[in-house]
Amino acid sequence: MFFQRCFFILIFLIVKTMGSARNCSWSFRTLHVVSSCPFKTDEKLMAEKIKKCEGLASLQDCSGPSLFKYHCVLNEDGDEFLEVCAPEVKIVLGHCATFSISNGRIKQHFNRTCNRGTHPCPLQYVSSESYKYPTCYGFPDNYTIYEATTETINIDACSEEKRNQLIISLTFLLVSCIYISTLPLILSRNCRRSCLKHCPERFGWFLYRSRKRKEKNPSIESLSSIPLQEMKDCEEKKDIRSMKEMKSDYRRKIEIVDKILSDLTTEKDTSGENVKDYKTEKDISTLEEKFKEIKELKKAAFSNLHLHRELHPFPKQKSSLCIRNISSVNHISHISERTIWLSNRKHVMEIDHNGCILRYFKMDDVSGSASHTIDGDGKLFFIRDNKVYKVQFKEPETIFLDPPQKVLSIYYSKVRDEIILGTYNMLGISIHSKLTRYSKEGMVIIEIESYEGENLYVLPMFISENVNGDVCTADCGTSIVTGVSRLGNLLFKYDGNRTQVGFYPTGVCYDVYGHLIVCNRHDANPSIHVLNYHGHFLTLILTDKDGIKDPYGLCVSKDGSLYLGQHDSNTVAIYQYLDGK
Question: With contact defined as beta carbons under 8 Å apart, do 348 and 372 qualify?
Fold first, then answer.
């Protein structure tokens, strides 16, 4: 018991040292890619004045005001300098500092060290002072960045500091060795206790403790008390009920439009003019267009709903694609019988089903969002230099849109044949984000920013649409999946499954059966969530136990196969998540 307490105290100190992992959306508002970082104190002070981090320190909720400071570090890939205001943390064990795109915080880079050479970094230092160590920025150790000084060095003080660092290291090593050596004894003792209490062989000690807690407090309900078959039946009934509601919704719309159109065609006088005042030619054309749209929706919906397939209780991986010369797959937009369109932060590319790159286009997507889309005619639209480019096969690139706001994401609406952009704009210290629908000619149709006075978005980085034309976004600034109608009415907000801790949504997509599939790349529980078309949680189809570590982009093919890409991986995994043929 003594060793267990020592170990937990040690873990607490390490976590306290490394800082909180809670998402900090305020850091993303100040994130910029720069050509170089300041390496001298006067240069750093000048950069701090320009960045004005102290103005946000009292407004942000990521840390205390005194800890929200200016940083300039390399990104996780080591190929770009990032300037950002973020909470200051302690960097330990001679590692370098870097900025985490996943949670908007400074963290230590475990593959990059600065504790060797002629100017090594100490065993522990604060992240805002990382500019003092050139090896953290890819420079050689003898690169001169230190200012000349006339101060004398206190040899005794340096020796005392090194001695303290050595004592901390030895203490950490000693406690770790003691706990590891006693761990088998502790586990064997707990195992013997559980066997004496006749625990079930499959779940052992954990179910025994759960049963004992329930005996002490009968009001506590455990998931283990619900039969597996009953849970499965409940999920099936819920899923089938959502499909019936969708069918009923389509029937109701079509009956209303049919009745109005029949009235318009019969209630006319002998002069050919409409009897009712509202029945103008414009009204007739509008209603006929609406009728045509709903007919198409009906055809698409009912052709798929009568072939409804249940979610597979145990999804299995069918195959995988390995793509050379890339390190991540951040977005998958389109899957056809011959090719797949996907992107990382530097390129959008078209590959075949063997993983061979057929063609690619350069772009600059720092955040790794939904930065490209494919329309119904096979045209490519992608984001570069805050502009939207359009590319048709064997034709040069052309600028399609040049919006005044900063563009985060793009999506092609198959229902409306429109382009949807997710944008944001900084006004002082506040951020204004919105979704904008454009026609294929580049004209603004509608802008969706707020609902009933409340802003809907902060960083809408991924977009998808269902067969009803409702739009869903994954907001990495609020960690919320938001669903709105085409006119901007709020339908649902989903912030994760209550049985799990931590939710950070990235890729989202709808399948033809009305399921909304969401990537959760939170470090605590990377997983794939499935919601119904109302935005209610149905189940988890993949977790870290299935081998996924950092899910990012996903797309569903016409045959119902789930294609999943991950950050820091050049492999696209293909899963069968639907039951039946």
Answer: yes
